[in-house]
Request: fold
Amino acid sequence: MNIIWSLLLLAAGAATGGNPADHPGHDNLSGILKSSYQSLVTYSQNPSKGGTSTTTGSVKSDPQTDAPKVKGIYVTAYSAGGSRMEQLLKLTDSTDLNAMVIDLKDDSGYITYPTTNKELLKYGKPQSFIRDIHTLMDRLNQHKVYPIARVVVFKDTVLAKKHPELSFRKSDGTVWSNAKGDSFVNPYSKEVWEYNVAIAKEAAALGFKEIQFDYVRFPEGFEKRANSLKYIKDGKSRVDAVSSFVEYARQELDPLGVRVSVDIFGYAASVPAAEGIGQDFVKISKNVNVISPMIYPSHYTAGWFGAKDPDKAPYQTIKGSIVDTHKKLDPLGEKKPLIRPWIQDFTASWLGSGHYAKYGKHEVEEQIRALKDMNVDEYLLWNANNRYTAGVTYK
Reply:
């Protein structure tokens, strides 16, 4: 299918409504895809300006050379600090799952555990979803779970309200928020960079082996309001501002022996940069140890990878997305990161009758089979409620 037409279809589908089991990074694909569509039109008119420009930087070394092949699950801070954790540990104990991605700074911007770090308290606000972070880390170690700290970066309502000067402000001086009431902070701000990296450094000190940054981007549809909002910026493009943060974070965290990973839209491997939100798949990937594209079949519309209903074709959809991912990243050579996608363990009933499958053992295993056939050995399972399918063989 013509990729421009595919983007328009996906944008239209994303505009139809919210998604209760969505990965937080997918808040509003409609505005984001329109940005990618504009980049794609420019690319088709002048390919020399498209795609794979990269920042400079040294060849990456892996600070976790003894890490296992990660097969992980997403765990909210509420689950990590509550009774659900017992069930999740039984799941990892009894299967080949061996890792958890745990919220340490969540989608609202709350630090999810008690901290006395003055640098963090200056900008953030703790909520004790995880009442005893040290006990949690001990439990993970006892159960041989590879711990990954999820840090939501530029979507941060807490920081935006506490320090409006670090956010995007309307002409009346109030902080801008999207239709859901969420606010973002400014990716140009070095203070914002340093704050999030300070959280990552504390996570490393607590024993997390990897920091996974999410919402590494500007708000959706930002290009439409970039000239009307007040915020500090420099001469960099939005793409360079975002990729520069990622490079800075990796350089700061490398000496601590932790990996840096970033979540990114799965479709980003199939299109040029989404300049409106500042995401370039290659530039970001060049500066991380691990890249985690969110390739849920439910997030592709009719025609992607030749599937009439991608959600009902998990093997075909996952395989197609990884083909594009390899094509995008293979030219990086030594700078190519480990590819560890997010895959789907939820049912996308909002797609409407006839367009979705009830996800269970077969559908999850088909995604894993597609990854294996494409020489991708690591993956992460997403379920917003942390209720994972029983009986799956995690190869």
Notes: The first strand starts at residue 71 and ends at 75. Residues 1-18, 34-57 have pLDDT under 50 and may be disordered. The chain has twelve helices and nine strands.
